[in-house]
Design brief:
This protein is of the alpha+beta class. The protein contains eight helices and 22 strands. It starts with about 35 loop residues before the first helix and ends in a 10-residue tail after the last helix.
Length: about 425
């Protein structure tokens, strides 16, 4: 068990020196509610070359150095620590027996995709909910991101947080914190990488892997769901570590009134399809029929299942067999503006989830080896059992009140805990 000793907090400016008019009470303690402060700090802060760190991590790094606190640093962007069993720990303070972890998150009103293909408000997710997710696989040729299923390990909502509204060229916008990590790519460069919100300027593009949808409740939607549940089938084939994948929803029907109505209805609801004519090779006694194939790959299949919800086909869909992530479209960001919004502190067992169709990383980036699907809560309990005090530091608090947040962290207090 690491040896724990008390450290006298450094002398910092008294909180009374800040005008009380700008100091609303937010859960625990007083903090200046200054919308542009986080943006100003982010714009003026530059991480030195050669150091892998997010801006909030670098600010904490500087503070610990300035006040003579011994620590060992490894950014959450570099994954977990082998010596801690794969747990991600940004800052280890050995003399104090402490671990500090820096976090960022999405807006509470943004939509996250569940494993059963529903778009659910981020703030409404509960511990244990299953989400569409993805993990990184090294096939010795290229680093692939493959679809998976994740489990919500923690979620809470904080009101009135200094945030960013990201506007995309297709008119869509998403609210998140300044350092929320996105899965992005550079223009004309292959491969995907994590990029923070305030660093998504040119030449970075953000792939949208899936469209968003709402459940259809019309007569045509019910008819399609019933038809494909009775006559259709879902075929998935994906071998881990290989590029070859294929996904199909198809249904066969003898030519006639029902077949014509099927094609007419698919066209009216905007579902692309192709028809394979079996009459050219049918045997004697077989009736000529057409096989309708729904198009669009994983994006097309998930959109159809999520919109029309044929229960038999839905029960057969597996994210683990959906293959690798393929960007449906790469979007350019046209503007990032500051705002104040409720924020969901969301953590998923695999460390990733789908936010409004985009690839997003955990609020808590500290999941360790995604293959083991180790939850952040289990890691925190294990580290606590080993004698560490685990403190979570949130990016928006660091950007606005670094000194106060770090001082409280040395005393073993988290800013996001409710007043007792």
């Amino acid at each position: 068990m690491p040896k724990i000793r008390q450290l006298q907090p450094p002398k910092l400016p008294a909180i009374a020196q800040i005008p009380k008019a700008s100091m609303p009470l937010v859960r625990r303690g007083l903090r200046p509610k200054i919308l542009d402060l986080a943006a100003q700090v982010t714009a003026e802060t530059v991480v030195p070359p050669g150091l892998v760190a997010t801006i909030p991590e670098w600010l904490v790094y500087q503070w610990l150095q300035k006040h003579g606190v011994r620590f060992d640093f490894q950014s959450s962007l570099m994954g977990g620590r082998i010596e801690l069993g794969g747990a991600v720990a940004d800052f280890v303070l050995p003399e104090l027996g402490m671990i500090w972890r820096v976090q960022g998150c999405p807006g509470a009103d943004e939509r996250v995709l569940t494993a059963d293909l529903r778009w659910v408000r981020a703030g409404d997710l509960q511990m244990g909910d299953r989400l569409a997710s993805f993990v990184q696989v090294d096939d010795q040729q290229n680093h692939l991101w493959r679809w998976a299923t994740g489990i919500v390990t923690a979620n809470s909502v904080d009101e009135g947080v200094s945030s960013r509204r990201v506007h995309f060229e297709n008119g869509q916008s998403v609210v998140c914190t300044p350092t929320h990590p996105w899965l992005a790519r550079r223009r004309k460069v292959a491969g995907l990488a994590w990029r923070e919100t305030d660093k998504l300027q040119r030449p970075w593009l953000v792939p949208q892997f899936l469209p968003t949808w709402v459940e259809e409740t019309s007569y045509s939607a019910g008819w399609l769901a019933g038809f494909f549940d009775g006559e259709g089938n879902l075929a998935q084939s994906s071998k881990r570590g290989e590029h070859a994948t294929w996904h199909q929803i198809r249904a066969g029907q003898v030519y006639g009134q029902t077949f014509d109505y099927l094609c007419q209805t698919l066209k009216s609801v905007g579902v692309p399809y192709s028809v394979y004519d079996t009459s050219r090779g049918h045997r004697l006694g077989w009736q000529p029929a057409g096989i309708v194939h729904l198009l669009g790959g994983v994006a097309g299949i998930t959109s159809f299942l999520g919109r029309f919800r044929p229960q038999r086909l839905l029960s057969k869909f597996r994210w683990e067999e959906a293959g690798s992530l393929r960007g449906k479209v790469n979007l350019r960001i046209v503007a990032v503006e500051p705002c104040v919004a409720p924020i969901a502190r969301l953590s998923v067992s695999t460390g990733t989830y789908i936010l409004q169709g985009f690839g997003a990383h955990n609020t808590q980036w500290h999941i360790g080896d995604p293959g083991k699907e180790a939850s952040d809560l289990v890691q925190k309990i294990r580290l606590t059992d080993e004698g560490y005090t685990v403190i979570d530091l949130y990016d928006t608090d660091i950007l606005q009140n670094r000194d106060l947040v770090c001082r409280d962290a040395l005393a073993g207090r988290e800013w996001r805990k409710p007043i007792v």
